[in-house]
Amino acid sequence: MYKELNTSMRTILTPGPVEAEPRVLRAMCTPILGQFDPEFTAIMNETMEMLRKLFQTNNHWAFPVDGTSRAGIEAVLGSLIEPGDRVLVPIYGRFGHLLTEISERYGADVVTMETTWGKVFDPAAVINEIERIQPKIVAMVHGETSTGCLQPLQEIGWACRQMNVLFVVDAVASIGGTDVKVDDWYIDACIGGTQKCLSVPSGMAPITFNSRVEALLLERKKIERGLADPDASYSTGLGRSIRSNYFDLSQLMDYWGPARLNHHTEATSMLYALREGVRIVLEEGLEERFSRHRLHETALVQGIKAMGLELYGDPACKLPVVTCISIPDGVNGESVRAMLLEDFHIEIASSFGPLKGKIWRIGTMGYSCRKKNILHVLGALEAVLIRHGVDVHTGQAVQAALDVYHGEKPQ
Amino acid sequence: MYKELNTSMRTILTPGPVEAEPRVLRAMCTPILGQFDPEFTAIMNETMEMLRKLFQTNNHWAFPVDGTSRAGIEAVLGSLIEPGDRVLVPIYGRFGHLLTEISERYGADVVTMETTWGKVFDPAAVINEIERIQPKIVAMVHGETSTGCLQPLQEIGWACRQMNVLFVVDAVASIGGTDVKVDDWYIDACIGGTQKCLSVPSGMAPITFNSRVEALLLERKKIERGLADPDASYSTGLGRSIRSNYFDLSQLMDYWGPARLNHHTEATSMLYALREGVRIVLEEGLEERFSRHRLHETALVQGIKAMGLELYGDPACKLPVVTCISIPDGVNGESVRAMLLEDFHIEIASSFGPLKGKIWRIGTMGYSCRKKNILHVLGALEAVLIRHGVDVHTGQAVQAALDVYHGEKPQ
User: Is the ipTM of this complex over 0.85?
Assistant: First the structure.
């Protein structure tokens, strides 16, 4: 009565989800192992080891939360925040608002500071605010896909460490596409995303946190009802315990640690996918991978400029894996996107809030970030804009990108 | 540096996760579509339609939560419970404790009632308690995998409806393996599991809820910061809003409904897997599928008895997809399980809490529930028990199961 799945083959150049690596898709076909099968727990341990390398950290704790990226963010913030805790969120795009929203829901006294969309914060301004309001936590986005900006973090991290403030970073969009140096930047807890530069489908959120975070989690730890030994006593009151059961990192530590206490049933196939995705990243090499992302970004940017379009955002803080383009006056951005999808099977993105209808966003992330796609999108965008009556410099975009690839205009 | 995934092929006869359907694994290899691609939103809508049939309901709302089964439970309870709400949880095994734990964490005034593990509640006892304590919600497990028991629900559901109490049912273990009649049993919100009788990997939790639940959710609804139109005003205070952002069913309704408001990024490959798993269930037919589960359960039970082992639990309320066996005196249950896994590549389960070390549990769920596996586990268990010095009736278990399959002793 229902047919087999039969989908179109898209070229996905949004800031996520992007095309999954074919080897990752294949890894998901691997038959299931039981969650406490020694072969499976060995895969869990190995994945932790690989995630440490991805996050450039010596932290012991590095594992995925079984949910999409914001599940990882909620697990970290929800496990750290106690009602009334002060949290500083510097906002420079849509996802800073999400950090605020989640923190508020867990009862934090949230203080926000905002800067113009399309720019990032001067670290000194953030540090001044930390000194002034003395928060327990600073929560910040590293790569804002909504505006295509990348926030420098090291100075802020160092200041947090000096003032004994916890520094939580949302690196969902940047992990695997550009440097995320958890230890060097003094990040206490960091959340990555799978469906962007790792080219693993959405559904898991790799996180890492250090011993400062662990100490706080252990203070709030509570063994789950029905799991404690029959004779053991345990608190039944809420007390300081973490509000969510699913996102309780203290319980997840017991699931990912040697105790192997039953919590959720690990999402087997997604773990296989994550392991394969990170394996491919490490096989390519972090530096080599980041260089590849910069090369294709350059080709795309040169092509967009050659066409006569304008980039949106401050180039000094451009996120190398997302390129934002101002929609020319009088052009219906959604009509352009629809034609790209329908006629060329290419997906690019629009944006949110104040940028809705003002910019297009093209992601160059992970497996989607390759020459074939860059040349394809430039040619297609030119054709669609001509069809929409836009006066573009015809024939130049693809040539400019080819120049970059052929090394004639190295950036 | 890291090798490709290379796992053993296990026969998984636990109460989950069980072997994934090969067609489900294959569906996960389907390339990604963007989350707002019309082809993908059509798949989302179609999956909702298929889930309604699975849950035997006319509810509009039927969609997966992106997380493991307990994510679905937390989404339902966490979206309904406001601090101080009274919740009644009748407990007859480990997962009743989980419902209690989650409800407590969301600030409920939880009242529990317990019955001996291995039995279920007389509906009249539960109804008396509802009348006495007047809860807002009754939360109950349908199939308790920890004890292998199945709780009749219809009378309790009818009583809840009469008294205007919300009836929330955890059908994680039963959905797709035995009847779960959401409408006929007056269930207001129901949570299913993927990794058991649907034979889809863990990582999604299909749920359904009716208009009584929807009305309550709409009262607590709040548009996410950063998504509201720039000019719109919205409350920033917590108020009655739902505590979790990730599990906020009022926001998930806007993601799964025509508004298509951005929330998480739907877990594409897991949705493909769920759609394929439910498609296969509907293709087999619910009645035919439940009969198949009963046939293999009968063969297993006859084999276990013929071997001279004792079943655990009250046969009157046996969960047809889990068979519990008392571990013979003096036998180390974990040693038996380890030998089954190492020598025969078969996984069976132990249990929790008061049943730890006392019983083995064999699941007959979904794709794992087939003749090959039943005959294999009976032969292997006999061999392992002989090796452990247990005085079993040799050679009889497999014969008893074959008798069932050959129709000589129809049950």
Answer: yes
